[in-house]
Amino acid sequence: KYMLAQESSKKHRFLHEEALACELAANFHEKAGNVKFVAELIDRAVCCYQTWGAEGKVESLLIDDESYDGPNFGLETKR
């Protein structure tokens, strides 16, 4: 369902909805132990929130995730 929400939000250019869907999906995958997807989802959420202008939310995400080292745009992550 998270993927469907992300795809629909992206298709209709609802950046805030796409960011939220990515953030929630990252949280879900982290709790489920699927760390493979977490970095990519957090990257996308941060990029969407930044584009949308939600700098406070970006700061909050970065503080909550101390291991986050910035968007990698599809490159290998440290996670």
Description:
The structure is a single chain. With 79 residues, the chain is mostly helical. The protein is 71% helix and 0% strand. Helix 2 (15-32) runs antiparallel to helix 3. The longest helix is centred in the first third of the chain and has 18 residues, at 15-32. The N and C termini lie far apart (24 Å). The relative contact order is 0.15. The model is unreliable at 71-79 (pLDDT under 50).
Give me some keywords for this one:
mainly alpha; flat; 79 residues; disordered C terminus; single chain
How helix-rich are the residues, as a percent range?
A: over 70%
Radius of gyration based on Cα positions? 12 Å
The tally of strands reads 0
Helix tally?
Answer: 4
Q: What's this model, at a glance?
A:
With 79 residues, the protein is mostly helical. It has helices at residues 2-11, 15-32, 35-52, 55-64.
